[in-house]
Amino acid sequence: MIWAALLAQAATATAPVPLWRDPVHDGAADASTVRDPASREWVMFYTNRRANLPIEDEKDVSWVHGTAIGIARSKDGVHWRYGGTAAIPQGCTGATLWAPEVQRIGGRWHMWLTVVPGVFRDWNAPRYIVHLTSRDLKRWECGERLDLGSDRVIDASVAVLGPNRYRLWFNDERTGKSINYADSSDLIHWTVKGIVTDTPGEGPKAFRWRGRWWLVSDAWKGLLVQRSDDAANWTRQPDYLLADPGKRPTDRAKGQHPDIVVVGDRAWIVYFVHQSGEPEVVRDLRWHRRTVLQIAELREANGILSVDRDAAVVRPLR
C-alpha cells in the first residue's frame, strides 16, 4: 500500500502529454504563462485557433483568424483546467487576437497582444500590437497601439533591463519576417533599434537565466537560440531546439512558438505542436491543423541550451 501511494504521488507530479489541449477548438498555441500570487495559480494565456472549423479549402486560413485568447489554470503545474477566454475589450483590438505576452511590471499586469482587424481567408491583412493592463488578470483595460513603423508586426516579447529601461522584441513581416527590437522608458513610447536575427522567424521570447540573456524564436525548422551579456549583442547557437519530432503521442512534429518560465535556477519551455504526425491524420486530412501545448525542462551547459522532449517532466514549474 505504501509503494502504491508513492507511485500514485509520483504520477501526479509528472506533467501530462500534452500539457494542455483546448477543449473548444483544439488549437492551443502561442502560450504565455505567469504565476498569479492572488490565486496561487499558474495562469496560461494562449491563442485559441479554431482548428476544428470545417473548412475544405487548404488555402483558406480563416480558421487561424477569428481567434480569442484562451486561458488554462493550474495550482501545481500538472493538473490544468479550462478558464474560458480572456475578457479583452473590443474597442482597442479586433476580431482576431494572437500571441499574448503577459508580465507583471510595476505592480500591474501588462499584456501585449497581436491584433488582426478582421477574419481573413489569406495572410494578406494588416496586423499590429496593442498594450493592455489589468489589476487581477481577469479584466483588461485598453492601452495604446504600438507605433513600430510597420503595418505588419506580430508576436511581442518584453523584458525589463533596468529602472525605466524596457526592451521589446517582435516580428516585422515588412523586413523579411525578421526579429526586430525596440526600446522604451515608459512602456508606452517605443523606438525601433534594429534587427537581431539573420534568418526569418517569429514568436521571440527573451528571458534572463543563469547570468545571461537568452532569445529563443521560432525559425519554422526548430527554435533558434541566441545568448547575450547585454541583451543587444547576440551569439547564435548552431543547432535548433525541438527541430526533430518527439516520440510520444501528440508530440510528433517540430516544436513552435516558445514560452519560457524561469523559477529560480530552473527553466521550462512551453511550445506548441501541430498534430500532423498523429494517426488521426489518416482518417481526417484536416487533423494537422490541430495544435497542443507541451512542456519540457531547459538544460544549459557552457552557454548552450538543450531540451529532451521525450523525458518526463517531474514536478514542473516548482
Keywords:
318 residues, mainly beta, Tachylectin-2, Chain A, 4-stranded antiparallel β-sheet, 1 helix
Q: How is the biggest beta sheet arranged?
A: 4 strands, antiparallel
Helix content class: under 10%
Q: Multimeric state of these chains? A: single chain
Which word captures the global form? globular
Mean pLDDT: 95
Uncertain residue ranges: 1-7
Lateral arrangement of strands in the main beta sheet: 1-2-3-4
The tally of helices reads 1
Structural class: mainly beta
Distance between the termini: 27 Å
CATH class: Mainly Beta
* The CATH topology: Tachylectin-2, Chain A
CATH superfamily: Glycosyl hydrolase domain, family 43
- Helix and strand pattern: HEEEEEEEEEEEEEEEEEEEE
Task: List the domain count as a whole number.
Answer: 1
Strand-residue proportion: over 45%
DSSP summary, beta strand count: 20
Q: Taking Cα atoms only, what radius of gyration do you get, to the nearest Å? A: 19 Å
The CATH level-2 architecture is identified as 5 Propeller
